[in-house]
Each structure stands twice: as C-alpha cells, then as structure tokens.
Amino acid sequence: MTPANAPVLHPDLTAAQRDCLDALPLTGNHVVSGPPGSGKSLLAAHRAVHLALTGHPTLLLSRSNLLRQLLHDTLQGLTVPGAPVEAATVHGWVLRHFGYGAPRTQDGWFDWTTLTHQAAATVGENEATAPHLVVDEGQDLSPGFYRLVRLVAASVTVFADECQRLTETNSTLTEITEALGRSTGRVEIAGNHRNTREIASLAEHFRTGGGNPDIPVRCGQLPAVRHYSGTRHLADDIATMAARHPADRVGVIVKSLRTAAELMRRLERAGLAHEPQLYNSTATAGRYRDLDLDRPGVVVVHRASAKGLDFDTVVIADAESDSGTDPTAAALRMAYYVMITRARQRLVLGWQGTRLPRHLEGLRGWVDER
What we know:
By secondary structure, this protein is of the alpha/beta class. It has 11 helices and 13 strands.
C-alpha cells in the first residue's frame, strides 16, 4: 500500500489485534475467529476501513439491526475522507442488491440457492463495482449466504465465533470456510478484554465446543444469582443498580417480550437519571428501533439481539423462562454463554418462581447466591 493508503489503526488496539489486521491481505476471502471480548467487532470495523482504501465500495454487514447501529457508531470514529464504509444488515443489503422481490423460503428468510443462481448468471459483469464485504457475528448466517457472496463480492472477510451460534440458520467456522472456497484464509485472535475473571469463569461453565480461551487477569465481584418475588421487585433492583452506578450502562436481557414491556413501564416511572431504552426488532423506526448505545442508563433487549453488545452491568432478567429446557442442551448453554459474556463489570442472573431453575444449579463457587 502507498503511504496515502496506509491503514488507520485505533490507538486502543492491542498488539495482538494489530497483528491480526496485519495478517489479513487486502485481497481474497478470510475468516477471523475469536472468543467473546477479543475485539472482533472493533477489528471488523477496522478491516472495513482498510478495504475501503482500495477504492471499492465497502459494507460492514451484520444480521442484527441493533449490532448494525453499534457498528455504525464505531465507524464514525474511524472515518477516512474519500473511503466511506456503510454499516448495513444482511437483510437490507440483499434487498438493495437483488430487489424487494428477492425470493424467500417458507421460513421467511431468503432463498440463498435461487439468489446464488441469479448471481452466477452475471458473474464478471460488474467487477469494478463489486463490494468488499465484512461480516460481523458471521456464525449466525447460513452456508448458503456465503456461497452467494463469494460470487458477488470483491472479497469477503468474516468475523465469527462458533460457540455463539444463536440463530437456526447458523454456520460453523468450517462451513463458512468451505462455502467461501478452498483458498479462504483463517486467522485467530485471542484474549478477552471485556469480562472480569469471575464473569469469564462462569461463562466457561456454559461454553460448548471450541478451544479453551484465556481467562482474563482482571478481577471483580462474583456474579450473583438473585431470586425476585415479581417484576416489581426486579425493576426496583435494576433501578437501584442504575442509581448506584449512574455513569454505567446496564443491559437487561430478557426472553419474554411481555417481561420486557412490563419492566419498561415500571422503569419509566422509577425516576432514573437517564431515560431507559427498549429495543424491539419489530419496530420500523422511532424510540424502540433507534437506540443510543453509548449513553449511560438501562437498555432492555431481547436475548436474540444481544449478540455483539456489551454493558458495564448485565441482568439476565428471566432465567425461569428456561426451566423446562434440558440444562445440558447445547442451544441453552450457548445462549447463556453469549448473555453472560456481555458483562464487563457486574452480572446478575435473576429468576422468579418457587424453585431455582435447573441450569442455575451447581454454580457454587462461581456465583453469589442470594
């Protein structure tokens, strides 16, 4: 690269993160894997900025709209004049590229096979305008998506962790690599710069598959398992946490949308220093769609939208909703691995009812039970 096209490196990147970026050529397809807290989303933004310097259109894609908002904000701090990068959802990109009539399957998601046939018919016609695609949380997209983008993109770089596959249309790292082609490069990034040692250790109890990530050195308080008598008790405790740490971001992760709505009603009347926020993926615009994830205060989010986010304090609000699930089920363990690793400083696993949920049993030593 010429000096004018030199990569822009964020001053907060670690040496390992810089080495990861340096190991990625500006051509070809690549898969970057790493555990929660290793900085994959930040690296994805940097990678997109570097690729934009080549002059090709560059998009930073995610399946989640809430993660798209976070990536958009990250890109604002990495802006390079003349080399714009757009953060978009995969859904929005497909509609833009193939039109609003893009074929779908019975489950409502896109028909990747038909779209791939359409793309194959025009291969080579628009090479000059073919975009660089960078995909964050790429494990949540199917191999069919990667077979498609292999044909339409100038390059594809995927950041993923197969231990965090929460969607039904997901891929392992091997499946992503095979779908992108034999020449696809593989890079691993280690380290956990988000969680405390106590939070990461609890997450390890729920992790399924993969290697053994390094446990952070930074220590903090034990995660807490708390019983709540009802939603009012839960809301009061969340309000107390927010008041005790007014500069912090408190992420409340729920499985039940009814719980989310009731919590918001109570939190809005609690006189918090910062107005609570709620993300609803079905909202098309407005306060329940466009959030400010950088400001302090409480954010209520469904667990399906929690991927890629982080908060100073995390409250997993309704663990009792999983009481009927086999505690050894991979999907359940993966969900808790993702939710737990969203927490930077403090973690509360809350439950209601008369009996401790089975998947929260046997955590003595990892948690403070109250």
